[in-house]
Structures are given as C-alpha cells and as structure tokens.
C-alpha cells in the first residue's frame, strides 16, 4: 500500500516537472498564438517589464508598424498596414489593432531595450478566422434489404476553416461526411453536427428514422426540388399552349386568304363575260368566216371578226 502511494506521488511529481519545463521553454522562446474573428480587436502585449525601457518597436512582416519614439499617429508608423486602425500605448507598449481582417494574420515581433541593452524579442502569432455560420446537414438514407437496415449518408457544410464533429445517437464521429447504419427498431435517431475553430463553435440538429417503405432525404432539399419541377412543368405547358394557338391562327389565316383569292378570280371572270354580253346588246355583230385560200396562198384559216354596226 505504501509502495503504491509512493509510486503515485513520484509519477505526479514527474508530470508536474515536465509541465513546468514545457511552460518554461514556451515562455523563454517568447512565442504566443492569439486567435480572433474577423472584425474583432486585439491587444498585443509583450508581457515584459516596462520600467527603464529606452527602445520599443513592433514589427510585422519585416515592416516597423509602431515605435515609442514616433511622435505622431500615436506611435504608429505611416508605412503600417494598420495605421488607420491601430495605436501604441506609450506606457506599457501594448499595440492595439481594430477591425481585424483575414490579411492581418501573421507574426508580430516586439523588440525592446533597457538602458540601451537589447532584450530578447517576443513573437506573437495572430490568426484571424472567418465567423462561423450555422452548419447545414444533408441526410440520404438507403434501405438495405440484405440486412434489413438503412445506410445513412451524412454531410455537414459551413464556411471557413473549421473542424467537424458528429453525434449520432451515442456515437461520436469526425469529418464533414460520414456513413452510419441504423435499423427500424432503433426508432428516431438524433443527428448533431458541430463545427468549431479556435474562437467559436456552432451546431445543427436533425432526426432520422429508418423505414422500409421509403428512404429519408433532407426535407428542405426535397421541397426545393419539387418547387423547381413545378415551375418547369408550368412553363413548358404554357409554351406548348402558345405554340398550338399560334399554329391554329396560321391555319385559319391561310384558309381566309385562299377563299378571298378564289372569290376575286370568280368576280373577275363574271365581269369579263358581262362586258361581252353588254357589247352584243348594243348592236355589235360577230361574223364567222371561213377563208379558204388558194394553194399558193397557204393553208386555210378561220377567224372570228366582230363588226360594229352603225
């Protein structure tokens, strides 16, 4: 019993010693990482003593962005990419940057000196992340007759660089896509997708049930597809109706034109005949002559001559 206690105490001491060593190495190296969202404000502090500091400079990407000896712009350099949204505290030399963007991610290096003697530099890595939006879950279920179960395909999507964690029933899975097997006797199964980064996290929830008669699909996706199909069918039916009406109009128009042309020709013929009959009624007479020519005169010919009477 005593030996066991001694062993546990020794192991605890070793773990504590390792933690202290690691913490010392991280602090002595002067490297830190800060995570922020787009639009946030960050305060970069070296964590070093400020008494007797004769030089203090912040650098970003090899460019001096702030210095305690710069009189104007609150210690901010005119070359700084943050000149309009940053300031340097002249007492503790903390650099404040507002309205962060994704492009602000990078290493900020603090260089300082006490009584003209330079101290170790401090590097702070800033990582700016896009705000996480609520994830969208898509579920597709297929009935497997061989083992009387449903194969569930899960897909979770969102914006930005995030980590995915699924909770399906009592099981935890990782990754944006997963495959899961449920049975009819399992009843309703709760599905939760959680997306997260170093700053925040958000979740979405759905319920899925295995049924033999039909497969489960995402309701929103199904409704959207139905609406699209309805609109497409309505448009197609309207187009076909317009085409049929146009063809019917063309056929009717062609028939009217043909009828009008026939009537016009008939009227013209009747007018010509009436003109001839009218001429005869006013005293004109036609004489049919057979002129027989001599053999020298050529072949016989016949002609109708109308002679107007006095």
TrEMBL record:
The chain crosses the membrane at residues 227-251. It is found in: Membrane. Residues 1-27 form the signal peptide. GO terms for cellular component: membrane. InterPro entries: CD2/SLAM_rcpt, Ig-like_dom_sf, Ig-like_fold. Keywords: Glycoprotein, Membrane, Signal, Transmembrane, Transmembrane helix. The keyword Signal applies. The keyword Coiled coil does not apply. This is Ig-like domain-containing protein. It comes from Oreochromis aureus (Israeli tilapia). The gene is LOC116333252.
């Amino acid at each position: 019993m005593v030996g066991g206690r001694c062993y546990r105490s020794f192991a605890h001491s070793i773990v504590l010693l390792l933690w202290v060593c690691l913490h010392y190495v991280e602090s002595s190296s002067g490297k830190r990482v800060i995570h922020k969202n787009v639009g946030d404000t960050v305060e970069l502090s070296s964590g070093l003593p400020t008494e007797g500091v004769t030089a203090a400079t912040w650098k970003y990407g090899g460019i001096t962005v702030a210095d305690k000896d710069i009189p104007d712009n609150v210690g901010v350099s005119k070359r700084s990419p943050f000149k309009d949204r940053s300031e340097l505290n002249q007492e503790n030399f903390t650099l404040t940057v507002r309205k962060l963007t994704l492009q602000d991610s990078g290493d900020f290096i603090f260089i300082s000196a006490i009584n003209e003697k330079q101290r170790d530099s401090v590097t702070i890595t800033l990582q700016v992340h896009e705000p996480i939006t609520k994830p969208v879950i898509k579920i597709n279920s297929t009935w497997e007759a061989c083992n009387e179960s449903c194969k569930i395909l899960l897909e979770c999507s969102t914006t930005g660089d995030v980590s995915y964690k699924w909770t399906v029933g009592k099981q935890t899975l990782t990754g944006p896509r997963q495959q899961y097997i449920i049975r009819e006797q399992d009843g309703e199964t709760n599905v939760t997708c959680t997306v997260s980064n170093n700053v925040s996290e958000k979740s979405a929830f759905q319920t899925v049930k295995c049924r033999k008669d039909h497969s489960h699909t995402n309701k929103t996706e199904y409704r959207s597809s139905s609406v699209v199909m309805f609109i497409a069918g309505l448009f197609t039916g309207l187009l076909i109706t317009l085409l049929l009406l146009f063809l019917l109009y063309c056929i009717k128009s062609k028939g009217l034109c043909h009828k009008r042309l026939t009537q016009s020709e008939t009227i013209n013929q009747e007018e010509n005949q009436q003109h001839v009959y009218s001429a005869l009624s006013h005293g004109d007479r036609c004489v049919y002559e057979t002129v027989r020519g001599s053999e020298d005169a050529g072949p016989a010919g016949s002609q109708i001559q109308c002679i107007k009477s006095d």
